[in-house]
Write a structure and sequence with these properties.
single chain, 391 residues, alpha+beta, FAD/NAD(P)-binding domain, D-Amino Acid Oxidase, Chain A, domain 2, eight-stranded mixed sheet, six-stranded mixed sheet, 9 helices, 20 strands, 28% strand, binds flavin-adenine dinucleotide
């Protein structure tokens, strides 16, 4: 019997993890990506494997998703991670007031936090400001974004998935009220082609609203919400340093190899492809980071970059939008078959997002195939062979 066919649009974390899940469930999978692997937001994150602490007070659904996936990914993608831990630190009375609610919320979300003596925190992280009033450990870790995406892509490819890189989806093929494939163009040669599928999966992150509109569905509102990150040319901490208060600008410092990355801001845009890096935001983040690690002031800025969060639209805006993910079956939202959109979420929840998407696709097609990605060992990121040739 022929395998069911799935075409996935987008090879960010979500598309690569979904390719892995569907390949294991017996699908013939093709991923179409207009750039290289991790071309979009996935290639430009802080690389923080969230403990969930950041969301524990105001967004508990996301916090629980983060801690559950954080613990699972430690075993699955150890090659992509530095299991360095994190600290939440209080600098003033407002932070101390927040700490009481935060500790209780972390307990409710099963996030293991432990208060440590300020002297101990400073011994671990001598560049931290000596003004800290309280410190708590959390199971944060850091990941290499490209390796993380390639690990899932390599495993999917080993299990038969094809990756058409530098190939842009320009339209959807519709027959009798259902999406049956994609029309695409190879960006290097200009060659056009069509790919047919039993189900098309829209995993285009901040671009997901545009693909949904190709199917005439304007009900999926994705709010591209960019943030600016600034890299400094010294590894000024070994753990992830988080300011212990409501999530805000410049309140995370993430060590990445021999640098630190300060993040991030949050604002909304309509056009995702050309988002500028605003100098006033870079300066503001530097000032926030100096409050946590004064040595930032004397450290050379290595670069500033930005990416857009694919947040699911609602009447809320910016930081008040939940960081959880959602999978849409367009049969339900717009009466059109053959198309599923997955968006929202975080890098930390890529596997769970893929599981939810593959469950939705299987249910649509009447296929019974359990998810295996919680235990299935992943291949090395080094095994990804690059773009597959057209047949
Ligand atoms: C500033 C910032 C910092 C972040 N830091 C963290 C962090 O530290 N930890 C964490 O867990 N999460 C973090 N996140 C969130 C996380 O990075 C995103 O949730 C995740 O990368 C989204 O992945 P995705 O695959 O859904 O989207 P993307 O990575 O954007 O992938 C979508 C892909 O679709 C492709 N595409 C679009 N249109 C088409 C088309 N027409 N044809 C073919 N391909 C197309 C794009 O090229 C892109 O590669 C951060 C987000 C931001 C904005």
């Amino acid at each position: 019997m022929d395998k069911p066919k799935a075409v996935i649009i987008g090879a960010g974390f979500t598309g690569c993890a979904t390719a892995h899940d569907l390949a294991l469930r017996g699908f013939d999978v093709t991923v179409v990506e207009r750039g290289p692997i991790a071309n979009g937001t996935s290639g430009r994150t802080h690389g923080l494997l969230h403990s969930g602490g950041r969301y524990a007070v105001d967004d508990q659904e996301s916090a629980v998703e983060c801690i559950e996936e954080n613990l699972l990914l430690r075993g699955l993608v150890a090659e992509c991670l530095e299991q360095n831990g994190g600290l939440f630190v209080a600098l003033d009375e407002s932070d101390l007031e927040y700490a009481r609610r935060w500790v209780q919320s972390c307990e409710r979300c099963n996030i293991p936090v432990e208060q440590v003596d300020v002297k101990q925190a400073l011994a671990w992280e001598p560049n931290l400001t000596s003004k800290i009033l309280a410190a708590y450990t959390v199971p944060d870790a850091t990941f290499d974004p490209l390796r993380l995406a390639l690990t899932f892509a390599a495993t999917a490819q080993t299990n038969g998935a094809r990756f058409r890189l530098f190939t842009e989806v320009e339209g959807l093929i519709e027959r009798n009220g259902a999406i049956r494939g994609v029309r695409c163009q190879e960006r290097t040669t200009g060659k056009s082609s069509e790919l047919y599928a039993d189900c098309v999966i829209n995993a285009t992150g901040a671009w997901a609203g545009k693909i949904a509109q190709m199917a005439g569905d304007a009900t999926i509102v994705v709010k591209p919400t960019p943030g600016v990150m600034v890299a400094y040319d010294q590894r000024l901490c070994n753990r992830v340093i988080n300011r212990l208060n409501e999530p805000g600008d410049g309140d995370i410092i993430v060590p990445q190899r021999r640098m630190v990355v300060i993040g991030t801001t949050s604002f909304e845009v309509d056009e995702v492809d050309y988002i500028p890096v605003f100098e006033d935001q870079v300066q503001m983040m530097r000032e926030c980071a100096i409050q946590l690690i004064p040595a930032v002031a004397a450290t050379r800025q290595r670069g500033a970059f930005m990416a857009a969060r694919p947040l699911i639209g609602s009447s809320a805006s910016g930081r008040s939008i939940a960081r959880t993910f959602k999978c849409f079956d367009h049969q339900e939202t717009h009466g059109i078959g053959g198309l599923v959109t997955i968006t929202g979420g975080k890098a930390t929840t890529l596997r769970a997002m893929a599981e939810k998407t593959a469950d939705t696709v299987c249910a649509k097609l009447g296929i019974t195939a359990p998810c295996q990605t919680r235990e299935y060992p992943l291949r090395s990121y080094r095994e990804f062979r690059g773009s597959d040739a057209y047949q």
